[in-house]
Amino acid sequence: MCRSIKTLREPYAEEVTPADIEAAALQYVRKISGFRTPAAHNAEAFQAAVAAVTEATRVLLDQLVVRGAGPARESTATASPSAARTTPTPG
């Protein structure tokens, strides 16, 4: 496991931004490809992989159900920083 990829789901992350998801995807692709920065002839494949992993991660996080958590959060692609991760008050 790549140690620089942080957990992006509740309760480990308060707020997850699209930049957080893309950074994790980039770290993953770097790890499995063995390239920090790909050569020019591999750049297109590298960027396509980062985009695909970013989208797969966003979908996964949007669909995960965490036991004991509040209502499902807004999509990470559309959530505003202030609206993300609100917890309902008992009552």
Can you describe what's shown?
The protein starts with 17 loop residues before the first helix and ends in a 28-residue tail after the last helix. The relative contact order is 0.17. α1 packs across α2. With 91 residues, the protein is mainly alpha-helical. The model is unreliable at 80-89 (pLDDT under 50). The radius of gyration is 15 Å and the shape is elongated. It contains 2 helices and no strands. The chain is 41% helix and 0% strand.
Rg, Cα atoms, Å: 15 Å
Q: How many individual helices?
A: 2
Number of DSSP-assigned strands: 0
- Estimate the global geometry from the Cα principal axes: elongated
**What order do the helices and strands follow?**
HH
Structural class: mainly alpha
Approximate helicity band: 40-55%
Main beta sheet: strand number and arrangement?
none
Distance between the termini: 42 Å
Overall mean pLDDT stands at: 80
Strand content: under 5%
Q: Which regions have little confidence, pLDDT < 50, spanning 5+ residues?
A: 80-89
